[in-house]
Amino acid sequence: MEVIILDGISKIWNYLLETRINMPGNSFANWAKITSMQNTFINKALSSDAHIIATTRVKQDSVLNQKNGKMVPEKVGLKAIQRNDLDYEFTIVFDIDTADSAKVTKYRTGVFVNAPEFKISSNTGKKIKAWCGEIHWRNREETQREIGQCIGIEGLRHVYAKYPDRQEALKPLITERKKTLETVSSQVLPKNQIIQQSKINHNGISNS
Questions:
Q1: To 5 degrees, how large is the angle CA 18–CA 22–CA 23?
Q2: CA distances from 69 to 20, 75, 76, 102, 136 (A)
Q3: What's the angle, vertex CA 43, arms to CA 40 and CA 47, rounded to 5?
Q4: What pLDDT is attached to residue 56?
Q5: Does the pLDDT value for residue 135 go beyond 80?
Q6: Most C-beta atoms within 10 A of its C-beta, which of 45, 134, 136, 180?
Q7: How many CB atoms lie within 10 A of CB 127?
Q8: Residue 69's domain spans which residues?
């Protein structure tokens, strides 16, 4: 399993904001350019065959919490320093406080349903890895079934285009199915030849 760690993607967003400030011309048009740059970065990460782990900084503030009968100031993270909709691109999002306790704020895995705050450990990684393996084989079986049900080249093209993130893995499967279809096609007699043969009786004399 290949994993890429992008440590500190808040720097990318800060760089884009600074770039926008220094851009001449219309502010609205400049935001469109910045959005395009951000989307290029996100799409590059999403199109990777590797699993992506990214970290961001958060805006911090202090709040007063009661401990042992006293009000004690504590730092809390308010919001990730990145574009607002970035969370939607990730399968799992952890909020980690200054005490290194993690809270799951988004998940599409079912692994961390109703999980209390916890310390991230190697066991956390093992759970995620197990889920990734399960999804990989489930997706592979479903895709193989789709390929096996294709009865023509157009169907194979459709499956290939449907899964851009799996195309490298699909190539040998699709190539094999294509060969099978071509072999079957070469063994099928043309319709007019079948009709002509049906006009000949068992003695080899034409009925026409």
A1: 115
A2: 48, 19, 20, 26, 51
A3: 140
A4: 93
A5: no
A6: 45
A7: 13
A8: 3-89
**Contact between residue 91 and residue 107 where contact means Cβ atoms under 8 Å apart:** yes
Q: Determine, yes or no, domain membership for 137.
A: yes
Instruction: Please report whether residue 149 resides in a domain.
Output: yes
The DSSP output letter for 61 is E
Rounded-to-integer distance, Cα 141 and Cα 169, Å: 12
114 found inside a domain: no
Percentage with pLDDT > 70 across the chain: 83
The CA dihedral of 19, 42, 168, 134, to the nearest 10 degrees, is: 150
Residues β-bridged to residue 4: 52
Taking the CA atoms of 197, 180, 159 and 164 in sequence, report the sign of the dihedral they define: negative
